[in-house]
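step=encode ok
step=design start
structure_in=
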């Protein structure tokens, strides 16, 4: 589909309005996960360059917070419009470096842009108050102020959306931002920064830095100038970053790993549940933090559901994201393939049965055939851990209370999905599932207008909705006395 096209990639970092290379010219390579081919490289910035970026973001902050809210929102709207105008080009870059099918990449760019559109509403900043408790009128005021310089560390599975859902509220609130994208997918981030520059977002307000994750992470977390870190990624790295932010007492938003149960109750519309499971499980080849992990099916409909799911999964077309009609792309790297193989081997050794898939598709690059396994249970690693791949373990259940008790033992608490027609049952699940988000009779829940986030080991803070901007605001109380 992209054959013969030259897709320009920005091979520089963006700091204080300038496109820079590393001071010692060192670089990091980026590969196409579908072919293993070299795509390009980005600079490996030095500690001094990272520190320089933090200083630039600080200088820019004291100017940016003075820019009237409506003007900040106008600049965000201009950025949104440029992204929408260039969505095809951005989606091509995204598919090349991340692997997801082009249609999904286009969907992600639109979704990413929708966060900028959402947070460019000035009314989201109408958050102050005049309290009625003072002895004189207007003597107790509450203001919202921007937190200050913020940092974002983002993952490879949504190279555009994970950035805009942090940057847009930060900038609307009057904060400046330093983004460190995942090393696998920096080019989408850099292309977004290019458009922010074109939109007229002032120098130093948005910066994108590349290089060694640990070095950059250490500088960002230890700097007292950086007042907030927003991280999306694994629970292990999130908890390390949280510890590293403790000495400087930063504000934190952490969107970490999930393990979303997908529950199909006895009265569910089975065809709708199968479609929901396909969407929730196999989107991005299973590599989203809200992907359904294991699928729990009521005993009375288990066999019918399993047969229909397998038939549907066998229709999913694998291939490079730039090929027509492909719905399942490659996994991000070889390590991801090995993880899926380890989880499958563990499940089979404990009595699971492969109903379809179960092996690599081709030996080159990082392909795994969409897989369904039966007879899964809570002892298996694929049920306890986040799979992050195209494997659907089916767990049979007979007792809702027991199921909920087992699910409560899980550390993660991001999303859950339930298919049921019974209002009382829906109310029980809505209350009892220990997660941040629940979808009933749907496999897709995300939207810029709603609060996205988790509980327990899935992290803290919310992105999107009204809540998303509060993460970038600090409350100040003013007492006026005469
Ligand atoms: P995933 O398993 O999805 O790759 P990670 O948590 O490893 O998730 O990575 C998410 C982001 O965190 C990436 O941008 C990665 O470079 C970054 N990262 C990984 N380790 C560290 C670290 N020690 N310090 C700072 N950032 C890190």
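sequence_out=
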């Amino acid at each position: 589909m992209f054959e013969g096209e030259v897709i320009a990639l920005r091979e520089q970092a963006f700091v204080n309005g300038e496109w820079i290379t590393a001071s010692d010219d060192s670089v990091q390579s980026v590969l196409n996960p579908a072919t293993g081919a070299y795509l390009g490289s980005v600079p490996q910035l030095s500690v001094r360059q990272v520190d320089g970026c933090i200083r630039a973001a600080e200088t820019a902050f004291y100017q940016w917070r003075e820019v009237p809210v409506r003007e900040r929102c106008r600049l965000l709207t201009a950025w949104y419009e440029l992204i929408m105008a260039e969505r095809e080009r951005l989606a091509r870059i995204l598919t090349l470096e991340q692997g997801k099918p082009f249609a999904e990449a286009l969907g992600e760019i639109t979704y990413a842009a929708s966060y900028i559109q959402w947070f460019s509403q000035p009314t989201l900043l109408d958050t102050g108050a005049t309290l009625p408790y003072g002895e004189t009128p207007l003597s107790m005021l509450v203001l919202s102020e921007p937190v200050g310089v913020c940092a974002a560390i983002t993952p490879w599975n949504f190279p555009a959306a994970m950035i805009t859902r942090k940057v847009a509220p930060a900038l609307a609130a009057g904060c400046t931002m330093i983004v460190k994208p995942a090393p696998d997918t920096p080019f989408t981030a850099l292309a977004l920064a290019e458009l922010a520059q074109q939109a007229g977002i002032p120098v130093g307000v948005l910066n994108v830095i590349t290089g060694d994750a640990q070095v950059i992470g250490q500088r960002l977390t230890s700097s007292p100038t950086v007042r907030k870190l927003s991280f999306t990624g694994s629970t292990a790295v999130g908890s390390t970053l949280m510890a590293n932010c403790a000495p400087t007492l930063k504000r934190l938003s952490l969107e970490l790993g999930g393990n979303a149960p997908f529950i199909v109750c006895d009265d569910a519309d089975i065809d709708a549940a199968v479609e929901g499971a396909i969407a929730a499980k196999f989107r991005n080849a299973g590599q989203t933090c809200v992907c359904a992990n294991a699928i729990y099916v009521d005993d009375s409909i288990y066999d019918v559901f399993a047969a229909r799911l397998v038939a549907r999964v066998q229709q999913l077309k694998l291939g490079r994201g730039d090929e027509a009609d492909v719905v399942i792309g490659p996994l991000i790297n070889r390590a991801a393939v090995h993880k899926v193989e380890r989880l499958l081997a563990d499940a089979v050794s404990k009595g699971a049965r492969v109903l379809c898939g179960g092996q690599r598709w081709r030996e080159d690059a990082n392909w795994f055939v969409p897989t369904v396994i039966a007879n899964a249970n809570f002892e298996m690693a694929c049920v306890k851990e986040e799979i992050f791949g195209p494997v659907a373990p089916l767990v049979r259940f007979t007792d809702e209370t027991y199921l909920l008790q087992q699910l409560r033992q899980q550390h993660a608490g991001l999303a859950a999905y339930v298919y049921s027609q019974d209002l009382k049952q829906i109310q029980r699940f809505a209350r009892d599932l220990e997660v941040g988000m629940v979808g009933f009779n749907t496999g897709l829940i995300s939207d810029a207008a709603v609060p996205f986030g988790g509980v327990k080991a899935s992290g803290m803070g919310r992105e999107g909705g009204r809540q998303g901007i509060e993460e970038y605001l600090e409350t100040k109380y003013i007492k006026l006395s005469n």
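step=design ok
step=annotate ok -> The chain is about 40% helix and 20% strand.
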